[in-house]
Amino acid sequence: QVQLVESGGGSVQAGGSLRLSCAASGTISSINVMDWHRQAPGKKRELVADILPGGDTNYSDSVKGRFTISRDNAKNMVYLQMNSLKPEDTAVYYCGIWATTTWGRFNNYWGQGTQVTVFS
Q1: What helix, strand, coil percent values describe the chain, rounded to 5?
Q2: What is the mean pLDDT of the chain?
Q3: How far is it, in rounded angstroms, from Cα 46 to Cα 40?
């Protein structure tokens, strides 16, 4: 089994910062892409940022310049540093990975999500 556990969500005033962490564990042989998605009430889940094993990153236009994704390959961790937060960043944030398990299956796995609330 593969488990992803997010932490670091909470409530913050607009303009503030939060750092999300996600730990992947279980029967993982290797991890390819690590990413963060978010879903606001009444909206579809959207990609926030992703990062390849070598460190190449991709961001949605709405967070570019404010959010930074990073990863620690040795620890199977992915992070999302969120600065200059806006009320429209309020959502449940999910980390995800594309990973190969120890028995050779390549699949997409998700965490349970962590709530981020930005108030004005």
Answers
A1: 0, 60, 35
A2: 97
A3: 9
